[in-house]
Design goal:
The chain is mainly alpha-helical. It has helices at about 1-30, 35, 40-50, 70-105, 120-155, 160-190, 200-205, 225-250, 255-285, 290-295, 300-310, 310-320, and strands spanning about 115-120, 300. It contains 12 helices and 2 strands; from the N terminus they run H-H-H-H-E-H-H-H-H-H-H-E-H-H. A two-stranded antiparallel ribbon has the order 1-2. The relative contact order is 0.11.
Length: about 325
């Protein structure tokens, strides 16, 4: 009897083990063939891969249900630009402030003579201030749109920021092409004056005498720093202008990818453009005594001309 019970127990154990492996094999086959019996898995895999399907809508790109590029664009905008851009602009502003505290700006080395020399015509000044005002508006509205959610809402609240950003978006979109037109006109009228010469290299080497020692570098009517800003303005202005127009008028068959790349380029160049403008504004005001008068009144003192644009001053003196 004991032997019989022992054999029966061994039989149960063997059958249980076989049943265990049998059920395991069944579950394994079910897992492997899950996709075959679950068509939704294949469907969503194709959706995530961006495989186009059928649609009655003829617009370009509508045959793809989910565009992963949108998520990539969002991460670049929200994680990269919004986090890094403020640091770039802040570091440059602090560097300019420290430089001014150390160097103190480029002061006139001799008393003003009282003799005023015409430096810019009325047309030059109108074109400059036309572009400058539009640039400031575009910079303020553009940065507001970029940082509005993170920087303005906590201070002003949702309702106020929503109204402000709605107006900012309209101004940014409509004034953008006008700013690009100003860049084009400045290039046409001021191109010849901004061709680099040998004297400009020395000017750039010590920032027009603001750093280092030795005699003040020679300069034409437009110095090396102004020429550098001119070409940065043309390059950056053209880049933000063209990408801005592509974003303003999505009616020329641009794909989503083109629009996303245009936006990334637009924001990246615009941030660099605004940052570079800090140096131009500084040199035109606190950085160089008497420089602002030339663009505001059109005239500069002869002392300023001798110190900052001696080659041009000699040409003007010869014609009188």
């Amino acid at each position: 009897m004991k032997m019989l019970n022992k054999n029966r127990l061994n039989g149960y154990l063997i059958m249980s083990t076989l049943l265990f492996f049998l059920l395991g094999g069944v579950f394994l086959l079910l897992a492997i063939g899950a996709d075959a019996v679950n068509p939704r898995a294949d469907f969503w895999r194709l959706v995530r891969d961006g495989i186009p399907g059928y649609t009655a809508v003829s617009s370009k790109g509508h045959s793809v249900l989910i565009h992963n590029g949108g998520e990539n664009w969002r991460e670049i905008r929200n994680l990269l630009f919004i986090n890094i851009s403020p640091w770039i602009m802040s570091v440059v502003l602090v560097a300019i402030g420290v430089f001014h505290l150390i160097a103190g700006g480029d002061k006139l080395k001799e008393p003003r003579s009282g003799v005023m020399i015409r430096r810019y015509s009325l047309g030059d000044r109108l074109l400059h201030w036309y572009s400058a005002v539009l640039f400031i508006i575009m910079a303020v509205t553009g940065l507001s749109i970029l940082f509005g959610r993170s920087a303005l809402i906590p201070i002003l609240g949702h309702a106020t920021v929503a109204t402000y950003l709605s107006v900012s978006k309209i101004m940014h979109n409509f004034l953008g092409p006008l700013f690009l037109a100003g860049i084009f006109l400045e290039f046409v009228f001021w191109f010849r004056l901004n061709i680099f010469r040998k004297a400009d290299l020395q000017w750039l080497k010590n920032l027009g005498g603001m750093i280092g020692s030795g005699p003040h570098p020679h300069s034409e009517k437009i110095n090396g720093g102004e020429k550098m800003w001119f070409w940065l303005m043309v390059i950056f202005g053209t880049a933000v202008g063209i990408t801005g127009i592509l974003l303003d008028f999505p009616i020329w068959g641009q794909s989503r990818y083109v629009m996303q790349v245009s936006h990334v380029v637009h924001v990246a160049v615009a941030v660099l453009f605004v940052t570079a403008s800090f140096g131009h504004m500084y040199m035109g005001t606190l950085g160089s005594e008497g420089a602002f008068e030339g663009m505001w009144n059109g005239e500069v003192d002869a002392t300023w001309a001798k110190q900052h644009a001696d080659l041009w001053y000699e040409e003007v003196a010869e014609t009188k």
